[in-house]
Amino acid sequence: MATGVEVKGEAGFNLFSIIQNKLKAEASVRNELKREFERNVSELVAKINLIAAAVESATSKQVLVIIDDLDKLDLATVQEVYGHIKALFSPGFRIIYTTPIASLRDGPLRANMISETDDQIVQMQVAKIFKKVNSRAEVMEPIVENRQKLCEVLNKRIGPQLMEPEIAETIVLKSGGVLRELIRLANKCCRICLRQVRRSQNADEIVINQAVFDRAVQDMRLDFEAPLGKADYEILQATYASFKPEDPKAQAFLDLLHGLHILEYRNGQIWYDLHPVVTDLLVLKEMIDG
How many whole angstroms separate alpha carbon 277 and alpha carbon 267? Predict the structure, then answer.
């Protein structure tokens, strides 16, 4: 690898695009990087610090790197990644890593993360749509502020002109207050509409309506159902009944928490509830009362 680093200034800053395109286009480059640095992390960190210094010099701005989507990996892979936690935090600039909530239930891993990050772990809380005391009421009143914020996010993502009135709120309530699930459900709705657009001669009239929403929820329910076994349903039933699992450190519970079958909420204390789509699933199977 060349030791020199060239960074163009404001008139034509293209370092990132060059690196990105190079890595995407040439598998040989990726393999070379892996061979050269996988057993020499200190040299890799030195190269990264050199690039960061060049970027900061050219832009007069501090480097911030965000490593996203680690929260979507399976737990075994996450544990393997964080087994190299000292190396992850070795570069001399700010880095933000995402991590699944279930990884914070692993005692040794959590302690190691706290130590290496100087206790700079920030937990992104799920937006409570309903208060715990109201979540089993026959008539549930949502928390207006949280509902409105998520509706604003959805309207900016899709646009109210592409949804029937009130459908944005319906999507928000079914998301459980999880931003990732809000976008996931909205994307499912959009894909269904896209298929309709391709088959329709009146494409301008197609919007996300109740029928589209119901189909998207059905698809999501099947996604949630596919990996579940008898023991999983027992944990789900217990969590629904008491707002907490019998053993919050059990691997089966952590897997359900990681898969978002179970959601964690906080308001002075930690409590758990089922994803609204998972609740629908258990109602359909007559495991809980609807």
Answer: 23
